[in-house]
Amino acid sequence: MEEGIRAKRGRRLPVVLSVEEMRMLLNAMHGTLRLMAEVIYGGGLRVMECCRLRVKDLDFDNSLIFVRGGKGDKDRSTVMAESIKVELRKHLYRVRRLFDRDRQAQIGPVYLPDALATKYPRAGVEWAWFWVFPSRSLSTDPRANVVRRHHISDVAIQKAVRDAAIKTEIPKPLSVHTLRHSFATHLLLAGVDIRQIQEYLGHTNVETTMIYTHVVKDFRDPARSPLDALAEKTTSAAPSAAPAIAPHGAGDDHDGAEADSSENTDW
């Protein structure tokens, strides 16, 4: 039997929220999980990039967030929204107290990637390397058999976004990644250069980022449908003139028997 040629699947446009829908979604969330959603939307982060943020990755003075070891094991920087700085500083103050308790209890150092634990043996117990969003509970690292505090699980933020979408009744299939899509689209709408957005998102090729240009046209003022022009002529026409297009329900007051005999119900 000859091998068939597999058809290529067409590219799908990403789901994107409008600015008002994004406001509704964030307002339906609370606490740390809302702050995480704001960091993701405000900087275009992937969900695990947000979960793995460390204190040293936040640059408040330059309004930057540094993503370490992102997709493709690449580092990049993206924007930190001015509107979250105050709440983010308050959050770090609370996290610092948790860090201090862990140090007093001599909890194991946080996990360090690659060979950094060997190169910098004290880094795992330093504040700069602590998680921005740490887990509430301790766990045993099976790789080193050490009890330590890991970062928060992505399951929590995924569930929080789904619950907020249900609460706000936004009729779109939402996930945390929708916030990243919305970040890129809203920047394009604001006139930000596509190359700059590519760098924020960490895309290797600009062609990947170009997908958002197809989404943007749906958010800009669309062309006027010719049906609306016909409807406008109908409402503005004089009573004696024949309507350009009959409104819904026109002619419904005809004799019932006549309508029954003439109506074609074979759909």
The general outline is elongated
- Beta content: 5-15%
CATH superfamily: Intergrase catalytic core
The arrangement of helices and strands along the chain is HHHEEEHHEEHHHHHHH
Q: What percentage of residues falls in helices of 4 or more residues? A: 40-55%
> Structural class of the helices, strands and pairings?
mainly alpha
CATH overall fold name: hpI Integrase, Chain A
User: What count of domains describes the coordinates?
Assistant: 1
Specify the CATH class: Mainly Alpha
Poorly predicted runs are 254-267
Report how far apart the termini are.
43 Å
> Number of helical runs?
12
Largest sheet, strands/sense/barrel: 3 strands, antiparallel
Rounded radius of gyration (Å): 27 Å
What does it look like?
The chain is mainly α and 267 residues long. The chain has one domain (19-218): hpI Integrase, Chain A (Orthogonal Bundle). It has twelve helices and five strands. Helix 2 packs across helix 6 (154-168), helix 2 (31-43) packs across helix 7 (177-189) and helix 7 packs across helix 10. The longest helix is centred in the middle third of the chain and has 20 residues, at 85-104. The protein is elongated, with a radius of gyration of 27 Å. Residues 254-267 have low confidence and may be disordered.
